[in-house]
Design goal:
Shape: globular
Order of helices and strands: HEEHEEEEEEEEH
CATH superfamily: Single-stranded right-handed beta-helix, Pectin lyase-like
Strand content: 25-35%
Largest sheet: 4 strands, parallel
Strand order of the largest sheet: 1-3-6-9
CATH class: Mainly Beta
Length: 149
């Protein structure tokens, strides 16, 4: 009986010594269906990872399709390293009108950070065709307003 007790104590001790540093967007209400805006879940997961008292935090984007409106992930953050791991698909809104009043050059942006790693086997789909379809090249007689920042 001593072995299981020692094992359980070491497991509990390791959980206390190394706080949980994994922030899955599903845990913050993301649907992953690609039809509803999951932006709030991403921002909430980021904020908790950024405030984490660990040396390294991970924001996990699991499999699924996540519709994201323009986002800014701000720092500075407490962890020395934040891993933003993408296994699913991130898609932007299909209409450029979503950016009305916003900087149209940014969809997903990170600001005031050091130690950020973005990787994974997922896909980032900015829905570029709708942007290219509006260009002067394809519509030379249409008047376009430029966005000044």
């Amino acid at each position: 009986m001593a072995f299981p007790l020692v094992f359980m104590l070491s497991l509990v001790t390791s959980l206390v010594a190394f706080p949980f540093d994994r922030y899955d967007v599903y845990d913050y209400g993301a649907t992953g269906l690609g039809a509803t805006d999951d932006s709030h879940a991403f921002v909430s997961a980021w904020e908790d990872a950024c405030k984490s008292e660990t040396q390294s935090a991970r924001v996990i984007v699991p499999r699924g399709t996540f519709l994201l409106n323009p986002l800014m992930f701000n720092g500075p953050c407490h962890p020395k390293t934040i891993h933003f791991i993408i296994y699913g698909t991130l898609i932007s809104p299909s209409s450029p009108k979503t950016w009305k009043g916003l900087d149209s050059s940014q969809w997903i942006a990170f600001k005031n950070l050091t130690g950020l790693n973005v990787y994974g086997s997922g896909l980032i789909d900015g829905q570029g065709m709708t942007w290219w379809d509006q260009s002067c090249r394809y519509h030379p007689n249409q008047v376009f307003k430029t966005l000044t920042v």
